[in-house]
Structures are given as structure tokens and as C-alpha cells.
Input
Amino acid sequence: MENYPQTMDYHQLLELLPYRSPWMQIDRLLSWDNRSIVVQNVVSGADPLVATHFPQGPSVIPGVLYIELVSQAVLLLGKLSTDPKAATKQTTVLARCKADFVSPGFVGDSLIAEVTVQDVVAGKSVFDGIVKCGERLVCKVNAIAATFDGPMNSVTSSLVAG
Output
């Protein structure tokens, strides 16, 4: 069992997460325990997922990127945690999501996602997350992520096959 540090930078995270630009949403791990995690994303106007949202302005971050940030944090927690009830080491696919968008995020914002796994039941992680910019609440996410054994290409094949 590997002991991971409480904080990690972008390059350390690349070793643990399957994402790369432009989908990698976590820039820094700020803290974690076996049931919760806090991560940071600094939004760049050069990010193609942001730049094409409103090309003429305002530079508002698409809401789906908050959901993706929270979901990636759950996957990262699964890689870090030693608690089998925290998350999963397996491939994770978002199964259900409810998001409340409270206020907009803008290019240049430093977003902090605080995520807690409530339970893992029948191969599904139930989690809650909030995304903030400073003290301002940006988004609340309640979600369930389904887990599968094996790499993503086997998951896709089994879903397509029915």
C-alpha cells in the first residue's frame, strides 16, 4: 500500500489520473483524507473548453466543467484512499448527477472543489461536492458514479453491446 502526500502538484497528479489536456481539470491537490478531498483548478482563457463557450464574452466557465472537476476529484480520492468505503480504484463513469449553479465562475478564477464520498453501495459511489471561488459558492453537486472492473475501453464495449 502506497502512502501519498497530502498535497500534490499538476505533474504528480498526471501519474494518478487518466486525463490529459484539455480534460484534466485538477491543477493541484490541496488536502485529502479517506472520505474527502479538496482540489484546485485555476481557469485559463487558453483552455479550449472555456475559450469556445462564449468567444465574444463574457468569459463564463461552462457548468459541466464544475461537474467534471468534482467527478475527477472523486476518482483521485479513490486512487489515494485506503478506505474501501471512500471510493473505488476501478474505472468510474458518472451515473447520475444533480448540480445547482449558484453563481458564475470566470476566466482567471481559482476554483476550489471540496468533495465528500458519502457511501459506496453495490459498485456505486455516492458523493457531494461544492465548488467555490474564494468564499463565494459557485456550484453544488450531488452525484452517483458507477464503477466497472477494467479499463474504459472494456466498459464502452459492454455498454454498446447492451
Q: What stands out?
A: Confidence is low (pLDDT under 50) at residues 152-162. The first strand starts at residue 28 and ends at 32. The radius of gyration is 16 Å.
